[in-house]
Amino acid sequence: MSKTATFERGIHPKYHKELASEKSIARAALPDRIVVPVSQHIGAPAKPEVVIGDEVKRGQVIGSTTGFVSSPIHSSISGKVIAIADFPTSVGKMVQSIVIESDGKDEPVVFNENPDYAGLSPDDIKTLIKDAGIVGMGGAAFPTNVKLSPPKEKRIDTVIINGAECEPYLTADHRLMAEHPKEVVEGLKIIMKSLGVKEGHIGIEENKPDAIEAMRSAVACETDIKIWPLEVKYPQGAEKMLIRAIKGREVPSKGLPMDVGAVVQNVGTALAVYEAVRFGKPLIERVVTITGTGIKEPANMMVRIGTLMSDVIEQCGGLVEGAVKVISGGPMMGFAQWTLDVPVVKGTSGILVMAHDEYVSSDEYSACIRCGSCIDVCPMGLNPSILSIYAEKGFFEDAKENNLFDCFECGSCAYVCPAKRPMVQFMRLAKSQVKP
Amino acid sequence: MATEAKTPELIVSVSPHVRGDETVGRIMWTVNLSLLPAFIMSVYYFGPLAAYVTGLCIVTSVLFEHFYQVSLKKKSTIGDGSAFLTGLLLGLNLPPSVPFYIPVVGSLVAIIITKLLFGGLGYNIFNPALIGRAFLLISFPKLMTIWSEPTAQFVALDAKTTATPLGILKEGGIAKLVEVFGDKTDLYMNLLMGSRAGSLGETSVIALLIGAALLMYRGYITWHIPFSFLATVGVMAWALGGDSGFFTGDPLIHLLSGGLILGAFFMATDYVTCPSIRKGQIIFGIGCGAITMMIRLKGGFPEGVMFAILLMNCFAPLIDRSVKARMFGAIKEKKEQKK
């Protein structure tokens, strides 16, 4: 390959991947208790299937789906349900959550293994994926089985596995690809089969040469799957950017990847799909990068869903003196936390702790000087400058007319803004004030 | 929970949680720095008086901004370097020998009326330094057109007054201009180095280009406005500027003289008053070039860069509104509309 695939515009933030990129995935200790929110995904929340006092086992369903776009939840430990109430979550909302206290035995339910899963029909696969509670693990947490069931008129011809991991600091997908390449490829093949697709791609940013190497050898015998080294540029891993980079297709404004025949799944999702289909294992744990200069021992950990961030942080040596900010996810799109007693959920890709010297205040900003930097970097080709001014002045309809709703809040504009304007906040403000 | 006691006060803010290094102050001070070569050359050619005029502009601009903001109980923004830059640009746009009140009045108009009354940095419609200069030119036409001869000695002499190259060109044509400077090569060399009459900072093309190179290297300005501006001037000078019919003009003379280089690289590129979409910037540059040449060739003034930029400043918002950057995913939509 002569040229690496990429998209137009975008930014080059400082990556700081070195903090955790060499750390092999370690298994987090069995937590004393877990807090499992009923809504960790886009769509209808799950309905609790347990009551206080119930004994549950690892892998047991504790919340069932309540609609087509919904996802069940499972217990990631064995123990007793001690509370069902609203608890804080990493996105800042209070969500009904099931609290389970561990009995220390970690007893599993019986998983239905499928050693000859190659013979399963697409519908069987989708049912297994749905029952396993698998959602997109890149962060958006859209139920995977729904993504794999496009309307008939949308012909899907391409599956792309997203291994770009363009968020600075995060290395979870990197480690996963380096350590479990075979499983990711099997997951991709299962996804391809469920969609009846012949063409599979795996996109990986070039700053992960060992992951690219591992994935290349894992697909050595596969004729339908291609590995794509991608330019290191944010937001390379945004769905629309990734499809553009690899297939040269642009998802139309207000459209979805399926409008251009593509389905994109995260690396972690592919692994979860494989484990669900092959071993009948529900999504009860995930790889999380715990990193940043505010954490004593950065690590990549296999963490059970529902484990509190405070527990995970403690296992990484705790916070350093002067840690000021804890972010769920990456620094570009992640959520700052006000408490560490929030659970790791299916979409939690990282816990980033910033020490004071790393922290940048966004409190003070000045008027837009119209330098155009944001226009030069907006991956969607928008004019964030004028959108932010419209939002600031309350002209929300004008913002909408200038394609406000094509903004997916990647934060590139805010990153480059010399006036330090809270661009993403302006976009969210405007979006909340008008209907799409 | 066990860790509760150890948990520090956490800061919650909106994403992104990392920011680039660029600040308004850094940009503005870099632009100030990029004008240093031109400033040095102005002192070299026109003596300490040049430093006095420019310095007075800077000091008064900064003071006006500071006291205006303090008196309105606003935060003083003089630290961001933009008032300094306005003063510097105003100074470099003045003739070498002006009485002290010219810089003061110019700064007042530039900072108070053009910039702050419109809302301050980011909200002004017109380039403040250019409005300041335009005000002075119209109010004090005599004082603003007394051009000293460059002495090239770093000393203050009783400099003789003379006409600018564009002035000579307007009155006597190319033949006369070449005669004044000796021959064509001497003319070009003098224009390039800056040994000619004119506004303080506009004469030394080479010094200006060094500063412009710094700004382009840092990515603070792009080729779009300067290139389209200069190209338009060049083409129009060649096509319409000749004494013996179409396409006999000398584009180099027009490119190297007047305030064109200063205007194209340092004033038309003012972020606030030019379009921010690249495509629009090309239109803006072409407009600036065309108006400049119309004034130079047909207008009453020998030089038109200032009015050209100011006129195009009016159109900047309109241009930004009519050209849009190509939006991701927009191709398909257009095709569907055509059907």
Task: Characterize the structure shown.
The complex is a heterodimer of chains A (436) and B (339). By secondary structure, chain A is of the alpha/beta class. Chain A folds into 3 domains: 25-111 and 282-358, Ubiquitin-like (UB roll) (Roll); 113-279, Rossmann fold, CATH 3.40.50.11540; 373-433, no CATH class. Chain A is built from 13 helices and 17 strands. Chain A has helices at residues 122-131, 144-147, 172-179, 181-195, 209-218, 239-247, 267-279, 309-315, 373-377, 384-393, 396-401, 412-416, 423-433, and strands at residues 25-27, 33-37, 47-48, 55-56, 61-64, 73-74, 79-88, 94-102, 158-163, 199-205, 225-230, 262-266, 285-291, 299-304, 323-328, 335-336, 350-355. In chain A, the strands form 4 sheets. In chain A, strands 1-14-13-17-15-16 form a 6-stranded mixed sheet. Chain A has a 4-stranded antiparallel sheet with strand order 2-8-7-4, with no helix packed on it. Chain B folds into 2 domains: 24-145, no CATH class; 166-317, no CATH class. Chain B has helices at residues 24-34, 36-46, 48-71, 82-92, 101-116, 128-139, 165-181, 184-193, 205-217, 224-240, 251-256, 260-267, 278-298, 305-322, 330-338; strands at residues 147-148, 161-162. The radius of gyration of chain B is 23 Å and the shape is globular. A two-stranded antiparallel ribbon of chain B has the order 1-2. The longest helix of chain B is centred in the first third of the chain and has 24 residues, at 48-71. Chain B has 339 residues and is mainly α. Chain B has 15 helices and 2 strands. The interface between A and B is large, with 76 and 48 residues.
List keywords for this structure.
heterodimer; A: 436 residues; alpha/beta; Ubiquitin-like (UB roll); Rossmann fold; 6-stranded mixed beta sheet; 4-stranded antiparallel beta sheet; 13 helices; 17 strands; globular; B: 339 residues; mainly alpha; 2 domains; two-stranded antiparallel sheet; 15 helices; 60% helix; 1% strand; disordered N terminus; disordered C terminus
